[in-house]
Design goal:
Blueprint (H helix, E strand, L loop, with lengths): L12 E10 L2 E11 L4 E5 L6 H9 L6 E6 L2 E2 L4 H5 L2 E4 L11 H11 L6 H10 L15 H13 L5 E5 L7 H16 L3 E6 L2 H7 L2 E6 L2 E6 L1 H8 L3 H6 L6 H9 L6
Length: about 260
């Protein structure tokens, strides 16, 4: 049988042996994972696990002590501008000019990203995230869900290859959360890849193709939500955390412990 020697699609993100330290304190210790094209990857972990530092290294906002980060094959440290041009970022807490309207903010950031859009195209983009009826409202008048939707529009206005979402649904009501999940799914359908952090195991199971669990700066396990449940369902610590059928949350608590984190 003839073999197909054509290379497969290039990985969108490659993180290899990443280590991040603040002084003598190591917060990310030898973490490796990758993201495929058109994949939603969840980075899970308790507070202080190293998720935000990992995201900061991927963005190129800090220099890792060791390891490499490649975005679409481009080394973030060697060519940061080229790598960042392929990234869109939505932080957990975003803040924009409070007196500007939604339409003004959207048009401003489209211009900053070098996107040539007509006013009609900007309006259509805002309508796609559920803000079509709120164009003239000032940012300070928006609800939390509306602010998150505007932040997501701005993070994706330049059609990035990889979107980084830091707890995108934190503080949202169920309707707003489901709407955002639907939009994330649509971005994936358009060929985007997404890396998101979340504390919601329901969110991870609902939207993520694969997940990785971090704790104390180390990657504990990685796989599809279903495969992680199957892999760890008989671990004593996981069984102790379970109340009935083992869930991803039980796996998470079993691996990271039940102590409160600050």
């Amino acid at each position: 049988m003839p073999q197909n020697d054509e290379p497969g699609p290039q990985l969108v993100l490659e993180v290899e042996d990443l280590a991040v330290a603040y002084g003598e304190r190591t917060v990310v210790d030898g973490v490796s994972f990758h993201i495929n094209p058109a994949e939603i990857f969840g980075l899970l972990g308790p507070n202080g696990a190293g998720k935000t530092s990992t995201l900061s290294a991927i963005e190129g906002l800090l220099t890792p002590r060791a390891g490499t980060v490649l975005v679409d094959g481009i080394d973030v440290q060697l060519d940061p501008l080229e790598a960042r041009s392929r990234l869109g970022v939505q932080l957990q807490s975003s803040s924009f000019q409070p007196e500007l309207s939604i339409l003004q903010i959207a048009a401003l950031f489209a211009g900053l990203h070098g996107v040539r859009s007509t006013p009609g195209q900007v309006r259509d983009g805002l309508a796609a995230v559920g803000l079509g009826g709120e164009l003239d409202r000032r940012y300070k008048q928006l609800s939390g869900g509306q602010q998150q939707r505007l932040a997501l529009f701005i993070a994706t206005v330049h059609k990035p290859l990889l979107l980084l979402l830091d707890e995108p649904t934190a503080g949202l009501d169920p309707q707003a959360r489901r709407h955002l999940w639907d939009h994330i799914g649509q971005l994936r359908a358009e060929g985007r890849s997404i890396l998101l952090t979340t504390h919601s195991m329901e969110e991870a199971q609902s939207v993520c193709s694969r997940v990785a669990i971090l704790d104390h700066g180390r990657l504990l396990t990685e796989g599809t939500p279903a495969s992680l449940i199957a892999k760890h369902r008989n671990d004593p610590a996981v069984l102790a955390a379970a109340h009935g059928e083992v869930t991803l949350e039980d796996v998470f608590i079993g691996l990271t412990g039940g102590d409160l984190r600050v």
